Amino acid sequence: MLQNAVLAVFALALLPACATTTAEVRVAAKPEWRLVIHGGAGVILRENMTPEREAAFEAALQRSMQAGAAVLREGGAALDAVEAAVLVMEDDPLFNAGYGAVFTADGGHELDATIMDGRDRNAGAVAGVTRVKNPIRAARAVMEKSEHVMFAGAGADAFAEAQGLEMVDNSYFDTDWRREALERVLQERARTAADRHGTVGAVAIDLNGNLAAATTTGGMTAKATGRVGDTPLIGAATYAENGVCAVSATGHGEYFIRVGVAKTICDRVKLLGEPIGVAGDVALAEVAALGGDGGVILIDAEGNPAFAFNSPGMYRGVIDAAGSMVAIYGDSTD
Ligand code: ASP
């Protein structure tokens, strides 16, 4: 869905360049600000989509990007922008984060989220929360209102509540289509890649050149109670360091944890001087070699965006002062 003809450069950015699906583009002019988002990677195929559903996802990605862009356009911080962008997707049942999160094997919801500020590498995360309406807000509160980086389980919910965040009953996160997915997975005793996509994330650079990243998820359909994925682990799914890059990942979390995907990418950029797309490819090749799949969104210190994924599709988008674009499938920019 090309929003603006001058965004042909984004078309290149969104278009996979090779089988392992990485695309990076050197954008000619340094952007004043830029935001890149994802809404999960997985087996997302045209033949399984209706035009209505495709349009709904594209519109949802646009709403998320517009929320983040509103912050950046006014000179706001990358940190505020990534939070604003993922908040929109947490509230949208299309995505596996917040309302619409997948079910655990026990029929509940346990949510993970993290946020990281590239200015000082301050970070906050929550794992296995069940009652805070917007886990990304809880992650930010951990970062800013506690001396810690990560809270888990009941203590994380209690912390969020004590900070005055909106709390809900666990059933608030229920949706029919996620319940059907749970029933199918339990019956077939098999989980497809489609049963976990929908995790959301954002990376941004602001007018001051600051980087930030955020990621939030319900995890995997029918995950065991207590299972924690890569999303809340700094360095696995999320990392941001000014002057280096910002990363948000989605995919089979166990593999992303084992590879330490986000930190691997940032370290390769920092220590080897690799372009972000190359570093993303290397990390995803490690994930693939172990048997995993997924994707990353990236932004470098100059604001260049990149996407890398080794799954058939990834909901994704990029926005800056010149316009915006979204893409879904691995083989095209729409
Ligand atoms: N990474 C998430 C997890 O394993 C799921 C996903 O991104 O699709 O919990």
Question: How do the helices and strands line up, and which of them pair or pack?
Answer:
Blueprint: H1 8-14, E1 22-24, E2 34-42, H2 51-73, H3 78-90, E3 111-117, E4 122-129, H4 135-145, E5 150-152, H5 153-162, H6 176-188, E6 200-205, E7 211-217, E8 238-241, E9 245-251, H7 253-259, H8 261-272, H9 276-290, E10 294-300, E11 305-309, E12 313-320, E13 323-329
Parallel strand pairs: 4-5
Antiparallel strand pairs: 1-11, 2-6, 2-12, 3-4, 3-7, 6-7, 8-9, 9-10, 10-11, 12-13
Helix pairs in contact: 2-3, 3-4, 4-5, 7-9, 8-9
What's this entry about, in short?
The chain is α+β, with helices and mostly antiparallel strands. It has helices spanning 8-14, 51-73, 78-90, 135-145, 153-162, 176-188, 253-259, 261-272, 276-290, and strands spanning 22-24, 34-42, 111-117, 122-129, 150-152, 200-205, 211-217, 238-241, 245-251, 294-300, 305-309, 313-320, 323-329.
Describe the structure.
The protein has 334 residues and is of the alpha+beta class. The protein has nine helices and 13 strands. It has an eight-stranded mixed sheet, with helices on both faces. It has a five-stranded antiparallel sheet with strand order 1-11-10-9-8. Helix 3 packs antiparallel against helix 4 (135-145) and helix 8 (261-272) packs across helix 9. Mean pLDDT is 90; it is low at 1-9 and 15-20.
